[in-house]
Amino acid sequence: MKHSVATVAPGATDCGPATFVVQARLARVGGQNILFSPSRQAIFAVNDTAAEIWRSLEEGTPPQAISLEMARSGVDSREANRHVETALEDWQRLSLIRPCAPSPPSSAQELVSQVVAIAGLCIRIVYPAACAFPAITVFRHLEVQRETADILLQMVEQGGRVHLFRNGDWVLSCSPDELPVMLKGQLLTEVLDHGAYELAVHAAALVRNKRMVLVCGNPGAGKTTLTMALVHAGFGFASDDVTLLDSNGHGVGLPFAPAVKAGAWPLLAEYCPDLYAVPVSRRPDRRRVRFAMPGEFVPLPPSPTAIGYVVLLRRSRDSKAGLEPVDPAGALRGLLNGAFSPGRELSGAAFDVLTQIIGSAQAYRLTYSGLDDAAELITRACL
């Protein structure tokens, strides 16, 4: 695709030394300039001006120097800055270039850091002060007082994009309003890649009478809204989306703040009175979400908890609420939907864990349209 000329934030090219690493290859084929991205297995057509900018980046020329060289060749200086800024913005968004690894902060840089604990991992997150909010608040309930951490995640802001580095290695970039969502995804990746567990299931987890309740359902089935309603009804909150199972069939929730989609804001305002005061974040698909913890949230200890109930969701508009027992095969299918094993394939040991859970837990299918009726049925079943 050819790069369009667009106005971006002034000063984007004021980058000092060469700060970008190219992650694509440029070729000229049949009179056309082609960029190939090995990581994305994608090609992009660029015009001659963009191709010259790319070659300069490959040579290690700083963006500001590229603009000055274009001006010396007769291009208006403002136009030259705009060409370089637009190219850098587009290429960062497409992950065709990235900043170099972050250097040690100078005394003039303002950084903010927090250490969070999740499923036994301690992770330090370092933000530039200018883009720390609201992401830092989304993970505040997970903070621990630790000087050391297992993993370092560092954010670097450049050219209107935020770049995430893990232990000095570049991982991804996003727009500032996507940072809370992308960071939550990276924390989940860290847990799935480095945590100790037998199987991760795509299920919300709540605790009632010292037993864990797993709530399973496809995207859009209403796990988040039902979870918030159950917490309001007195259940303990353990996880909104992913729950880890150990070799004994016990569960450990990942208590990230639930990401509430825009369509559910009116439904959940009753349970989270301050929901509309929470800043709006964006998912990669640009859908709006707000991260909100229920007002009654009390952090549960991260100790494994026996699974007492499995609830499979079937949301149906205008349907009468009903809770019916599910046979073992149906319950297994529900838990396996979206499950993740450390070896990427379901092992025999992981399957044994699932059969152990289904053999001892009570499994139900919940059909519902209204939250209050659904919460009441589950509350009665979990006495």
Q: Can you tell me about this structure?
A:
- This protein has helices at 48-58, 63-72, 77-93, 135-138, 179-194, 223-232, 265-268, 328-336, 348-360, 371-381, and strands at 20-22, 25-29, 32-37, 42-46, 97-99, 111-118, 121-128, 151-158, 161-166, 169-174, 199-201, 203-208, 211-216, 236-239, 243-245, 250-253, 259-261, 281-282, 288-291, 305-315, 322-325, 362-368.
- The chain is of the alpha+beta class and 383 residues long.
- It folds into 3 domains: 20-98, no CATH class; 111-194, no CATH class; 199-381, 3-Layer(aba) Sandwich (Rossmann fold).
- Strands 11, 12, 13, 14, 15, 16, 20, 21 and 22 form a 9-stranded mixed β-sheet that branches. Strands 6-7-8-9-10 form a 5-stranded mixed β-sheet. Strands 2-3-4 form a 3-stranded antiparallel β-sheet.
- Helix 6 crosses helix 10 (371-381).
- The protein is elongated, with a radius of gyration of 24 Å.
How is the topology of this model organized?
Elements: E1 20-22, E2 25-29, E3 32-37, E4 42-46, H1 48-58, H2 63-72, H3 77-93, E5 97-99, E6 111-118, E7 121-128, H4 135-138, E8 151-158, E9 161-166, E10 169-174, H5 179-194, E11 199-201, E12 203-208, E13 211-216, H6 223-232, E14 236-239, E15 243-245, E16 250-253, E17 259-261, H7 265-268, E18 281-282, E19 288-291, E20 305-315, E21 322-325, H8 328-336, H9 348-360, E22 362-368, H10 371-381
Parallel strand pairs: 7-8, 13-20, 20-22
Antiparallel strand pairs: 1-5, 2-3, 3-4, 6-7, 8-9, 9-10, 11-15, 12-13, 12-14, 15-16, 16-20, 17-19, 18-19, 21-22
Helix pairs in contact: 2-3, 6-10, 8-9
